[in-house]
Inverse folding.
């Protein structure tokens, strides 16, 4: 009878499991996760059991010192739902892609004589929205997507599926501080455009030609005020309906298409 746990690599700590995370690679056990951190494995998230043994937690905490990882403290049932092996109170989800630094991407594009087209996603938390946006971004010629290291959907197998594989083709950058990243982008001569309902400028009146970084905000409360204030210009998508609210992936399609339309005329 086939075992429902299929080994992903020749590592005793890495498995696929028939659960919510069936298509994602994960590592469990304090020592295995610590070694993954030391080896600079790209980890989307680390689940830590609430009330795990103090000595194990201190060992993990020491390994995490100075590192930027998305941590979530969860009840033991959450971890048991991912694996029935001895997880010791910690499970890490491994990213299926390598992330880039926004500085490297922008500098590389400028050296090639290209005008960067960057999409900045401020706290998009729904992984399927993220995947759908990435699919549209790749179709419309976006050079790179920038996401925050914490408080945002990461690249998972579900996101890759929703993106129809676009997340394997478009570069994704993680930023520890979106404000600093946007300031750097501006200093490189890239205009920053915030797509927000708070703007009075209609999308079709906004100049999106040339080097541009477009910001889209979270599903819950849009773009943070710090990023809106930093932007060179804001724009809004005109609407006539009573709901006056669009799904962020739909909004992304409209803004990115408008950029392409302007470039073609």
């Amino acid at each position: 009878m086939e075992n429902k746990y299929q080994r992903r690599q020749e590592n005793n700590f890495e498995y696929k499991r028939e659960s919510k995370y069936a298509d994602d690679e994960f590592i469990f056990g304090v020592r295995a996760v610590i070694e993954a951190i030391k080896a600079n494995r790209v980890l989307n998230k680390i689940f830590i059991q609430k009330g795990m043994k103090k000595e194990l937690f201190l060992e993990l905490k020491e390994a995490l010192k100075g590192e930027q990882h998305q941590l979530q403290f969860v009840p033991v049932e959450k971890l048991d739902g991912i694996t029935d092996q001895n997880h010791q109170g910690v499970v890490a989800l491994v990213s299926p892609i390598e992330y880039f630094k926004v500085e490297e991407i922008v500098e590389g594009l400028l050296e090639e004589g290209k005008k960067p087209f960057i999409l900045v996603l401020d706290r998009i938390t729904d992984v399927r929205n993220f995947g759908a946006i990435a699919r549209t971004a790749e179709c419309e010629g976006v050079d790179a997507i920038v996401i925050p290291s914490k408080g945002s959907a990461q690249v998972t197998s579900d996101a890759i599926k929703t993106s129809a594989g676009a997340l394997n083709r478009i570069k994704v950058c993680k930023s520890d501080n979106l404000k600093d990243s946007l300031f750097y982008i501006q200093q490189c001569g890239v205009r920053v455009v915030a797509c927000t309902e708070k703007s009075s400028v209609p999308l079709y009146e906004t100049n999106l030609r040339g080097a541009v970084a477009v910001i889209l905000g979270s599903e819950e409360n849009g773009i943070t005020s710090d990023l809106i204030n930093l932007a060179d210009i804001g724009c809004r998508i005109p609407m006539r309906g009573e709901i006056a609210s669009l799904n962020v992936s739909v909004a992304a399609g409209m803004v990115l298409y408008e950029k392409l339309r302007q470039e073609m005329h």
Q: What stands out?
A: The domain at 6-94 is CATH 3.30.1330.30 (60s Ribosomal Protein L30; Chain: A;). The chain has a mean pLDDT of 87.
